[in-house]
């Protein structure tokens, strides 16, 4: 590569996204005091640009505007320019995204916001094309107009920005009003089910026409709804909606049939043509959701998909030291000689490529059938490409195919006169050869930063799959990642989590000069992961750490006046708002997950004030939960866990004993949304016995592994057979 002409301060950062912009002609600063001081000293406006490394339109705006020398000069002359990686600093992102959504009705990335020298926003948007078009003002024009406004109407701008901030503060406040109590779970569940049912796509599954996101929170809500209404028509429909959606997603192009794992979302109704980036948080949540689908249905299809996701993560998103990387990009070079990246280039196929890779004649099939014919028929491959121009505005996929399972194995087998077992082997061989061919293509960019929150979601995925599929290696991988978090994203002296660390050279793990402290979501997703890991491994050390982190979370983020937790801690003068998120989207919001965490924490510790806190969170979100619970399906799900009281499933037995293992297998094979599992191993000096004195009164019946079902620390009669236990777990 040629020596870069420009280098700015971002060269000293660790974030892959910031490093991508280190050679722009724009004089970028990272978010921090140096930039703020410069803006104040020179009385300049700030231009804030927020994105992330796998964001397609962020790449486009960089190519068109931030690499343009003239536009760079306008930016440097008139503004102090700050670049933020939203995955490193979700707190900064949320403050200004709240502003952009409130003032423009939409939001997204790249986010472009202009701020006064004291960081108050007054104009914002997302992607701007470089020059004026028929329908849109160009970035150059916007820059010049805003610079002119600042010269001419400085005081009006400052006044306006103060008003905007006050309105935002008022609008974004979530708090308990008066003596509100948690909303009744029956009504919240019924409304949420009705709202999901009304927006459900009967043909292709999912809950919108397009774009379609693999929103795990909706599916988990439906599983819980089913578990509480198993014998009713609504319960049956809830289960059917969830399982059909998971099947259609797994057959669709959003699922990478050659390289495993799931892309971020589908641009069409049929889950066919995705945006091709792959995010760690999707893999973690979907591995857990497919494992649950297997637990409930017993259908191996769902277990296979969970294993496919975990294979992808183990191979492509895993650091040697144990952590998980954040994401893989959508754009890549089609060939080693290409000068320009294209979206999806790594994943799509021309028909002739497939025919050339799979020319073998298939014995026993209809005359002249090749392996390529069978493969192309099954995966919907067309000679002219299978992507409609509507799904491909930049014509990057013209003549290409995104693989999608178009037929059942039975239909494909019948079409070519093959036996089912034979067809499976042929398709497997086809995928193997395409995978080898794909390995020769230039890979997309890998974002190797490691985030505590997303690592938490992925640990939960491995732990839950390990428990539900009885695969010990997944539990071990989860434990390895938890040990990584403890070593690299936790400060034992302060007891606090850190947000991020980075892959250095020679597979070392690096930290930025001033480490970013963990946010609410880091604590919540890591605590959830540690509870899931305890239930899968029964190692009490993870429980102990989870409870310590829960105390720290309470200290740093709890709002004692309005209840619930703030997303960021107090005391950062550069943050204008302390917000509470109120939407379960691609990731569940932290306050939703923390309700269940608090109830689990209370079960393992006997601290009832955590139950009280869980109720206070539900009370703070009460209005939203009663009117539009579809925006908070994970919190709606948690209302039932709160009202039904968690059941402590206590197995008394020797951890190594075959009878104990059989009882544990029974508990793990059953989907029961309001249970927590614990092993009473008889070691009265252990952590659990110290926390929960009532365990000492539970004994093994006739020397056999014995199960008790306890609630509020009162226990059922003991049972010693897995069949009886199963009956108690599935009333």
TrEMBL record:
Pfam families: Thioredox_DsbH (PF03190). Gene3D superfamilies: 1.50.10.10, Glutaredoxin (3.40.30.10). InterPro entries: 6-hairpin_glycosidase_sf, 6hp_glycosidase-like_sf, Ssp411, Ssp411-like_TRX, Thioredoxin-like_sf. It comes from the Eukaryota. One of its GO terms (biological process) is carbohydrate metabolic process. Residues 7-168 form the Spermatogenesis-associated protein 20-like TRX domain. PANTHER family: SPERMATOGENESIS-ASSOCIATED PROTEIN 20 (PTHR42899:SF1). This is SPT20 protein. The lineage of its organism: Eukaryota, Metazoa, Chordata, Craniata, Vertebrata.
